[in-house]
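Entry 12.
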Amino acid sequence: MNKVFLIGNLTRDPELTETSGGVSVCHFAIAVNRSYTSSDGDRQTDFFNVTAWRGLAENVSRFTKKGSKVAVSGSIQIRNYEDNQGVRRTAIDVIAQDVEFLTQRNANAGDDFYDAPAAEKPAAKRKPALESFDDDGDIPF
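Predicted 3D structure (tokens):
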């Protein structure tokens, strides 16, 4: 079984593109802290490249940005390629099957995670003001 679960923060803004067939694909990277510290007291961090497809890709692109905390579940994919110098390299990617957004949304934000410019923000809904009640102390019953 090839299954991975990661919780971390985006290291850069997600990059949404489309394949030549019109399928949305989003590439992003997350930093995941290890659960232990080294002998000198430093906490180690691992960096993972993640790829999301279709609707998930569009949602990741829409609702996250650099620094957003996410939980990713998916599988590991290993790719082999040659770099510019002809050296054979191996890349390890996570193919996301589910991404849960753990960063709390801004309460004033609209549908998108990002704040819209002030001119585009919808008017804030005002709560009705409470009216004062003059109670003369008489009990009505």
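Annotation: The first helix runs from residue 54 to 63. The chain is about 5% helix and 45% strand.
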